Amino acid sequence: MRIMARPRALIAVLSACLLLAGCGSAPSQVGAAAFFDDHEIVTIDQVQSMIDKSVQEQPAARQLAQQHKLDQVGREAVRQLVLHELITRTAQQDGVSVDPNQVAQVLAQDPLAAPLSTNTVDPSQLPAQIVYRVRDHREVITDQLLLQSLGKQYFDKLAITFDYTSVVTDDGGANPVTMREKAFAKVGQMAADPDAAAKVIQADAAAGAKTSLGERVPAVQAPDFAGTVLFGVPPGTVVAFQPSAERAVWIVAVVRARDLGAQQSVDQATSPTMGQLAAIGLRLLQPRLDQLGLKINPRYGVWDPTALNLAASAAETTGLVLSVKGTPQP
């Protein structure tokens, strides 16, 4: 499968995507930063080498070093190397490919060649942008193109059905409870048994919360939403996440069905951007990542499946994912 795009358009969208991009048991192997099951895929030496290179070559990394924040670069390095391994394996196994000429066209006007300017990049994106630049640029661009290719392959076939409730306020008083804590508590309640979610949602609906049962969303109808954790987990999974950082709302949902095999019929389809296709492609890899038994060395934090990222600690993850007890998992 190949991505077809005009050279200038391809370079523009790749540049945009790259500029926007994005404790379990400890590894037993000495020197491992991350591994699948018992196979080491990222070493501590690899990560440290990338941190050292970033400080040598990128003013933005030196700025983070002055702020004692180079741990962010280390976590991002582990994340990108883990995802690169996953993308490479998937491409080989599923026959996903990109045209080498397209990679060469992007490299000819390499969007990662110039040092990173801290004046034009969201601070939350600095670690990702730094690591992109210290990695092999051909590898980075190929990864992005493969994700777009995968997203394009399934974009018009992917749909999910889910039930959900919402959390829109904190609880104050003598023992305050944050929205995050309330959402996480609901995940635990809804994952207790196969019938629990319906009871929680029914009670929330009676209390005036925004809820829905049997909500079906094809990716072609909501390409931005299709890049969220809901589209990357199997049926029988409960998730809590914030759809948007700009909106003070948490969604707690149980996925009932996930369809990848049929052309979706919708009243109005939305054309995805290349960035959205890459995000969808990444979510399509999430079940495989779970099957491979990813483990992260605790020195780099914990894996956050909601963001497909590393968090410094379990208290800093962006959401929660739990399987419903008593529900068979693939």
UniProtKB/TrEMBL annotation:
Keywords: Signal. InterPro entries: Trigger_fact/SurA_dom_sf (IPR027304). Residues 1-32 form the signal peptide. This is PpiC domain-containing protein. It comes from Amycolatopsis rhizosphaerae.
